Amino acid sequence: MIYELQCPWKSLEPRKPPLRPIEDFEE
After folding, report:
1. How far apart are CA 2 and CA 22, in angstroms?
2. Are 18 and 9 in contact (CB under 8 A)?
3. Whole-angstrom distance, CA of residue 9 vs CA of residue 22
4. Which tens digit of pLDDT belongs to each residue from 1-27?
5. Which residues are CB-contacts of 9 (< 8 A; sequence separation ≥ 6)?
6. Domain boundaries defined on the chain
7. How far apart are CA 11 and CA 18, in angstroms?
8. Nearest to 26 by CA among 10, 1, 5
9. What is the largest CA-CA distance in the chain?
10. What is the pLDDT of residue 27?
11. To 5 degrees, how large is the angle CA 13–CA 16–CA 18?
12. Quick one: pLDDT at residue 11?
């Protein structure tokens, strides 16, 4: 569950890049 919250874009479309840099999600 945490993974989805940290990277919701992956849950929606794993092929599409994240709207924001992963570094932003980490914090």
Report:
1. 14
2. yes
3. 11
4. 455 556 665 556 556 666 666 665 555
5. 16, 17, 18, 19
6. 1-27
7. 11
8. 5
9. 23
10. 53
11. 95
12. 57
